[in-house]
Amino acid sequence: MARTNSVGLWGFVFALLAFLLGWLPYLGGLLWAIGTALSCVGLSYRPRGFAWAGLWLSIIWIALWIMAICTIGEFTAFTLYPYYVW
Q1: The whole model's pTM is what?
Q2: 66: in domain
């Protein structure tokens, strides 16, 4: 009988849901936090495949959000610059 890592699998599921539904306010962040936590805990059990996949999806998700926030901040700074200068 094959062993399964239920915690790692649930971490992957939550990370995948966060990746797909991350554009929804608060829900993406909540799913990301749960997925990251479960994937980290799932790394302590074997097999670790789904736990690693969930952790990497979580890392990619937060990196994309940081890039989006920086891009929006730069766009706002350049767009509103004439209004800041008298």
Answers
A1: 0.82
A2: yes
Output the six-digit token pair for 4: 């399964």
* Neighbouring residues of 6: CB distance < 8 A, sequence distance ≥ 6: none
24, part of any domain: yes
CA distance 85 to 1: 70
Query: How many distinct structural domains can be found in the chain?
Result: 1
Residue at 15 is within a domain: yes
pLDDT in tens, 37-54: 999 999 999 999 999 999
Residues 6+ apart with CB under 8 A from 22: 28, 31, 32, 61, 64, 65
